Amino acid sequence: MNEGILLAVVGAALAATMPGIGSAFGVQMSGKAASGVLSEKPEMFGKLLVLSALPGTQGIYGFLTAVLLMVQIGLLSGSPAALTTAQGWQFFGACMPVAVVCFLSAIAQGRATVSAIHMVAKQPDMSGKAITLVALVETYAILSLLASILLIFSL
């Protein structure tokens, strides 16, 4: 494996792992809050499940980015392109928006979800508004996903 391919693969690995770690933290935070509410109000499971799952989407975005990069460089087809070191760095850099932003936004979304879960516990009819507030954090994860995809396919 040449140095360019190695750099691209490291970028893909970071795109998959960093958002996954952030999502694990975010879902863990929201799961703890939801568990506390559900211990007293088990009928709220459906509403709290949707909220608790939201911080997990960033991990999906990172995985998608890694797969798209591997497709772009031919790694999944078994015949990877010969990349120069400069091209490897370009692919590495293309993965950084999703790696960094999704890592941080998953944790931030987990924190927002905890507050939203507490709000829904007190006022169950506010679940739609709670989802909207938590989804605002998602906007930046989606923008970073789009940036990474555009960068990968422009190289």
Uncertain runs are none
What is the count of DSSP helices, taking H or I runs of 4+ residues? Answer: 5
Fraction in beta strands? under 5%
Average pLDDT confidence is 96
End-to-end distance: 20 Å
Structural class estimated from helices and strands? mainly alpha
Which properties best describe this structure?
single chain, 155 residues, mainly alpha, 5 helices, 82% helix
Task: Provide a descriptive summary of the structure in words.
The chain starts with a helix and ends with a helix. By secondary structure, the protein is mainly α. It is elongated, with a radius of gyration of 18 Å. 82% of the residues lie in helices and 0% in strands.
Can you describe this structure in just a few lines?
This protein is mainly α.
SSE diagram, text form:
Layout: H1 3-38, H2 45-53, H3 57-72, H4 85-122, H5 127-154
Helix pairs in contact: 1-2, 1-3, 1-4, 2-4, 2-5, 3-4, 3-5, 4-5
